[in-house]
Amino acid sequence: MRRGGQVTLRAAQADDGAAVRGMVEGLSRESRYFRFLTGGRVADGIVEGLVSAGADGVALVVTAADADGDAEAVIANGQFVVTSRGTAEFAVLVADAWQGQGLGRRLIARLLQLAQAAGVRCMRGDVLSENRRMLAILRGLGFSCRRNPEDSYLHEATLALGVAAANLATRMPADWATAR
């Protein structure tokens, strides 16, 4: 990581639920709002969905050693779910203390690679219009971002996979994110 820390990317497992809940509870009000559209408590069903993308999707977690160094804490989560005709919806979440280190960008890049390998033709996601940092990250990765015609508070980010995802692999370190 940019600050020298080591992290591990791996597929999410059912027993990651408590650790993901801990990460979500530790988020600032703003981060919860940007990701879940609420600054308050996030429903258990939504948190459970962060670790189980179902048969047509992928759920990943990023872990790092906790402050004591004797356990791993979940610091980020990313997933996509295939919705229809080769399109997948994605979402990512990075713990506040780990934001600004390129982790979200790398997590999205890995999701794009996995989606392309699974035959997904288009990746899409909704981002709050005021979440300028995420919109900038997505534009930097080649996504087209436009206001959602049905909700002016949201931007719709889309990326046709193929050449774009293949080119992304050449811009990422070769050893980054080998998990599925």
How would you describe this structure in keywords?
single chain, 180 residues, alpha+beta, Aminopeptidase, seven-stranded mixed beta sheet, 6 helices, 7 strands, 31% helix, disordered C terminus
Number of domains: 1
Give the SSE order as H and E letters: EHHHEEEHEHEEH
- The CATH architecture designation is 3-Layer(aba) Sandwich
Estimate the global geometry from the Cα principal axes.
globular
CATH topology: Aminopeptidase
Q: What is the tally of helical segments?
A: 6
CATH top-level class: Alpha Beta
* Largest β-sheet summary: 7 strands, mixed
The strand line-up of the biggest sheet is 1-2-3-4-5-7-6
> In percent terms, what proportion of residues is strand?
25-35%
Structural class: alpha+beta
What is the alpha-carbon Rg in Å?
A: 15 Å
Instruction: Report the CATH superfamily.
Output: Gcn5-related N-acetyltransferase (GNAT)
Low-confidence stretches: 169-180
Instruction: Give the CA-CA distance, first to last residue.
Output: 20 Å
Helix content: 25-40%
The average pLDDT is 87
The number of strands is: 7
